[in-house]
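Consider the tokenized backbone below.
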């Protein structure tokens, strides 16, 4: 367990450092751009995020699983993943333009999409990070990533201070993404022989894509119903309303790295426990669910009291209505956190096909509710649509499948522990579990 905790600490250092530095800079940028241009940025960025899921083809967790299970095939796996990342990166870049032309054929949006979308073409170089994740050596990724982030954050401060054109800020985002991916690759290349010298085997690519496809479809549906509200608001209400909505959503989602970091650190250990048929397999899942639910509940309660103060004093009165969005949207984190914790269960129990149904269920609910509520209630309606759809996808869906009932019990168990929690008792039990398996 020590390696899990150390890996988690480095992961959180990465995110906390970016939050502390990045939050202050993002506030400067949001104020500098204003609601309209911040809305344009989020509209285009939503499209890029929507298509970026195709670059990796949903293979992130699968690649870690392969690298843990088959360490002797590391270079072959990396070579295969690099080339299909490259092909899908190019296709994602091109199709994002076609999608924008269908929605809003506006020159300023096309220019912005070209600038922000270029890093998609360099995502293939980042496949080496899965080696570090599989070996619980995320420290190296964190150092490279944060060094690049710090340099470009300082550059963006100068752009705002000297009142440079908005395009220079957008260009800095693109260059940062490119350099981060290339730096990680060349650092890995310095210590290891190049995996690009290997000709990728079709069978390896086919094996990875076959296991990843259900996750791809599921991930695409997840991204759609997380971003469809912003795309629909931008198309139906305009960029200014989208800018106001995006501030509330961004504050609500900024801490989603917490369950992702915890779950990612638990994942390699859960793979080993599953392989060993260990009794601690379910106990670790229970601990994981309990941790993330506690965090989400406490964070949502705190936000209800702090939202108005935070929005007005940090972003200004131009974004005052963002607080209404934040107070509603924050409750989605309860179901998002539980969904992230449960995502490992789908992979380890070979239930990836159900993730497709799960995601499309949430997507269907979200699109229907957004279509009905946005014209009637505006950006507040979109926030409610997100909350209901996250509940449907991550909790209600589990009721309909017997194979998912153990996961539902883990979620209900987390709620039960919150109601009748004895912190000292649970802490002692968790520590005893760790020690008995180390």
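A designed sequence for it:
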């Amino acid at each position: 367990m020590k390696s899990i905790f150390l890996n988690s600490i480095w992961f959180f250092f990465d995110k906390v450092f970016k939050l502390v530095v990045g939050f202050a800079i993002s506030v400067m940028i949001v104020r500098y751009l204003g609601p309209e241009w911040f809305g344009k940025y989020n509209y285009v960025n939503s499209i890029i995020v929507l298509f970026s899921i195709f670059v990796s083809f949903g293979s992130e967790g699968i690649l870690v699983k392969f690298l843990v299970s088959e360490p002797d095939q590391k270079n072959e796996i990396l070579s295969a993943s690099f080339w299909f990342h490259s092909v899908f990166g190019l296709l994602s870049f091109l199709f994002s333009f076609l999608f924008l032309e269908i929605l809003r054929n506006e020159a300023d949006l096309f220019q912005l999409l070209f600038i922000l979308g270029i890093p998609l073409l360099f995502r293939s170089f980042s496949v080496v990070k899965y080696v570090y994740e599989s070996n619980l050596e995320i420290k190296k990724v964190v150092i490279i990533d944060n060094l690049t982030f710090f340099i470009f954050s300082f550059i963006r401060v100068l752009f705002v201070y000297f009142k440079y054109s908005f395009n220079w800020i957008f260009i800095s985002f693109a260059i940062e993404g490119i350099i981060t991916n290339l730096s990680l690759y060349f650092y890995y290349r310095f210590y290891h022989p190049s995996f690009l010298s290997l000709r990728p085997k079709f069978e390896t690519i086919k094996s990875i894509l076959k296991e990843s496809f259900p996750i791809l479809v599921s991930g695409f549906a997840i991204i759609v119903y997380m971003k469809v509200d912003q795309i629909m608001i931008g198309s139906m209400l305009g960029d200014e309303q989208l800018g106001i909505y995006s501030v509330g959503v961004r504050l609500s989602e900024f801490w989603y790295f917490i369950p992702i970091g915890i779950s990612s650190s638990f994942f390699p250990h859960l793979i080993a426990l599953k392989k060993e048929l260990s009794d601690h397999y379910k106990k670790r899942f229970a601990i994981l669910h309990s941790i993330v639910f506690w965090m989400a509940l406490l964070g949502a309660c705190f936000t209800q009291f702090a939202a108005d103060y935070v929005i007005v004093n940090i972003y200004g009165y131009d974004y005052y209505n963002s607080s209404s969005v934040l107070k509603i949207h924050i409750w989605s984190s309860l179901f998002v956190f539980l969904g992230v914790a449960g995502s490992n269960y789908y992979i380890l129990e070979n239930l990836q096909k159900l993730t497709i149904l799960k995601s499309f269920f949430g997507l269907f609910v979200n699109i229907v509710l957004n279509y009905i509520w946005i014209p009637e209630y505006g950006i507040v309606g979109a926030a409610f649509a997100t909350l209901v759809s996250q509940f449907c996808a991550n909790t209600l869906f589990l009721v309909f499948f017997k194979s998912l009932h153990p996961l539902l019990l883990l979620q209900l168990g987390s709620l039960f522990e919150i109601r009748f929690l004895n912190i000292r008792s649970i802490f002692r039990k968790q520590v005893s579990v760790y020690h008995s398996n180390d």
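The chain has 17 helices and no strands.
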